[in-house]
Design goal:
The protein is of the alpha+beta class. The protein has three domains: 149 residues, Thiolase/Chalcone synthase (Peroxisomal Thiolase, Chain A, domain 1); 41 residues, no CATH class; 171 residues, Peroxisomal Thiolase, Chain A, domain 1 (3-Layer(aba) Sandwich). It is built from 16 helices and 14 strands. β13 and β14 form a beta hairpin. The radius of gyration is 22 Å and the shape is globular. It starts with a helix and ends with a strand.
Length: 438
């Protein structure tokens, strides 16, 4: 561990002054109403419009995105230009799978802490409904031969070589959700954790049901107001709320769902997994000088961030491997964190993280601790629901977790929060935030 990693962000304090997100829209087997750049811009415009400074006063724009389209190369720069930041504000894109949005915040925080920037717009976007459908190598080779064929004879020969197998398409989203090193889908890694820690189907389904209940309550009581920004498509249709919550679900309905990833014996189903969703999230980060100069409100402070790696076949335990060193670095226990946002990639995965922290053997052998870290109060975790009910647009989720835990701290008059998530490929990320308790 380097000196910088031990200290977190040495240098200037990093403040979050504002943020919002688009409603998370469930994928419904067809392209959604927004391209990724359109969704990012729709979410970013009202955020910038309410600031006391003009967009060209930003030092840079950083956007996390895993699957931008071919028309959206360096989508961060596209968003910066379309948001009116002008020609002189750099925009760039980061990709760390599920944690791309958190990675953008980490990059922004380091830039401010080190004195290179004062105002940064950072976040993440993903439009999973428009994930590419790809041609096979055989079809690409055939198309190349067809393009090079000259004359009727050669084209006839090329057509004669065309076979049904050439028309098999590759679903890019399914490829992206499968680890190429260990050959397992993300759902299969969740099954691994369920087996390892003895997590039952009923426990997964109860967790999923609670996620939907909490999100429905948060919507009904207005707790998401100010965080979710209504957006409009090109036809004038308004999208003003997350649409994945299932108010009518119950344990019986969840129990009837068949396993998806390990048929017929598995326990991970569509009902206790994160929904596939389109979404975008932005946060405005500022130095103390920028806060003072523009008289900006302070939502909270980003204190530190930690990245960890582990076996890709156990990737769901990433929050344990990233969150534990973050706590140790700051002399904190699990119970010292007022609120947690742990991404619900799968119900089994979150439950496995909680079990790992309570497992003395796991903590000793995998984390190098002397004993178990202890239990974590479920009432402090994902208090307004999570990705099982809300969805997990992979490029945006990391930023959403940070924004929401700050909103929860503000609402509850609390001080410390951690946002954390597992990352495909066997990684974990965790970000510690603070605000002055009331």
């Amino acid at each position: 561990m380097t000196q910088r990693e031990r200290e977190g962000y040495p240098g200037r304090a990093v403040y979050v002054v504002d943020g919002n997100r688009a409603p998370f829209l469930k994928v419904r087997n067809r392209p959604g109403p927004f391209a990724a750049a359109d969704l990012a811009v729709a979410a970013g415009r009202p955020l910038l419009a309410r600031q006391p400074f003009e967009p060209p006063e930003l030092d840079e724009v950083i956007l996390g995105c895993v699957m931008p389209s071919a028309d959206e190369a360096n989508i961060g720069r596209i968003a910066a230009l379309r948001l009116g930041c002008g020609l002189r504000v750099p925009g760039w894109t980061v990709q760390r799978n599920c944690a791309s949005g958190m990675q953008s915040l980490d990059c922004a925080a380091r830039g401010i802490a080190e004195g290179r920037s004062d105002l940064i717009l950072a976040g993440g976007v993903e439009v999973m409904s428009r994930a590419p459908v790809l041609l096979s190598d055989a079809m690409v080779a055939w198309l190349g031969a067809w393009r090079g064929a000259r004359g009727i004879g050669r084209r006839a020969q090329a057509l004669a070589r065309l076979r049904p197998r050439h028309f098999r398409v590759i679903i890019g989203l399914l490829r992206g959700l499968t680890d190429p090193v260990v050959g397992l889908s993300m759902g299969q890694t969740a099954e691994n954790l369920a087996y390892r820690f003895g997590i039952t189907r009923e426990a997964m389904d109860r967790f999923a049901l609670e996620s939907h209940r909490r999100l429905a309550e948060a919507r009904d009581t207005g707790r998401l107001a100010g965080e979710v920004e209504p957006i409009f498509d090109t036809r004038g249709r308004c999208y003003d709320a997350d649409d994945g919550v299932r108010r009518d679900t119950d344990l019986d309905k969840l129990a009837r769902l068949r396993p998806v990833f390990d048929r017929p014996f598995g326990n991970v189903t569509a009902g206790n997994s994160a929904q596939i969703t389109d979404g975008a999230t932005w946060l405005l980060l500022a130095s103390e000088d920028a806060v003072r100069r523009h008289r900006l409100p302070v939502l909270g402070r980003i204190v530190d961030c930690h990245w960890a790696a582990l076996d890709p076949a156990q990737m769901g335990l990433g929050p344990v491997h990233a969150g534990t060193p973050l706590l140790e670095r700051h002399g904190l226990a699990l119970q010292d964190i007022d609120y947690w946002e742990i991404n619900e990639a799968f119900a089994a995965q979150v439950l496995a993280c909680l079990a790992a922290w309570e497992d003395a053997d796991y903590c000793r052998t995998e984390l190098g601790l002397k004993d178990a870290l202890g239990p974590l109060d479920p009432a402090r975790i994902n208090v307004d629901g999570g990705a099982v009910a809300l969805g997990h647009p992979v490029g945006a989720t990391g930023a959403r977790l940070v924004l929401h835990v700050l909103r929860v701290l503000e609402r509850e008059g609390a001080r410390r929060g951690i946002a954390t998530l597992c990352i495909g490929g066997g990684q974990g990320g965790a970000m510690l935030v603070e605000r002055d308790a009331e």
